[in-house]
Structure formats: C-alpha cells, structure tokens
Amino acid sequence: MTEKNPAAGAAPRVVTCPSCGRPVEWIAENRYRPFCSARCKGVDLGAWATEKYRVAATEEPKPEDQSE
Q1: What's the distance, CA 44 to chain centroid?
Q2: CA–CA separation, 42 and 22 (whole Å)
Q3: What are the boundaries of each domain within the chain?
Q4: How far apart are CA 53 and CA 32, in angstroms?
Q5: Structurally, what CATH architecture does the domain formed by 12-49 represent?
Q6: Is the pTM of this model over 0.85?
Q7: Please, how many CA atoms are within 13 Å of residue 39, restricted to the half-sphere of its CB?
Q8: Beta partners for 25?
Q9: For range 5-13, the mean pLDDT
Q10: What is the pLDDT of residues 17-68, one digit of tens each?
Q11: What is the DSSP letter of 36?
C-alpha cells in the first residue's frame, strides 16, 4: 500500500486515534500519530504499563520430571 504525497495535492490519509476514536491525519507533522495528542499517547502507554492489554495464551503442560 502506498501513501499519497500531501505535497502533491492529494489529501492525507485519515486514521482513527486508537485511544479516543477521533480522526487523525497521518502526516509527518503529527508527531503523536497514530494518536491525536500527547494525552492519548500517554493513556495508551499507561495501559500497557499496568498490563491492561494482554495477549491471550494457553498454558502448555509442564514436562514431568524424568529423573526417576
């Protein structure tokens, strides 16, 4: 997928802020992309730091001790 160059007259891509859902222009000047602001970026970082986001996994059975 290629991005259109906004300098060439094309409209920039618009994405949704993962934190608050507001539309965000995906441009180099937006230093917080894909977030809309420093606040939303910090909220997301805090969620990772407090382990709010988790990846589901199944526990594998532990191998039994074979030294008998």
Answers
A1: 8
A2: 16
A3: 12-49
A4: 20
A5: 2-Layer Sandwich (3.30)
A6: no
A7: 2
A8: 14
A9: 73
A10: 999 999 999 999 999 999 999 999 999 999 989 989 888 888 887 777 666 5
A11: S
Give the list of residues 6+ apart from residue 13 with CB closer than 8 angstroms, or none.
3, 4, 25, 26
Residue count (the chain): 68
CA-to-CA dists, residue 53 to 19, 20, 60, angstroms: 13, 16, 21
User: Which tokens is 12 given?
Assistant: 């920039």
Give bridge partners of residue 23 from the DSSP assignment: 16
- Report the pLDDT value the prediction gives residue 1, as an integer from 0 to 100: 47
DSSP labels, 38-56: HHHHHHHHHHHHTT-S---
Look at the block and give the residue holding tokens 């977030």: 35
Strands of 1-68, DSSP E:
14-16, 23-25
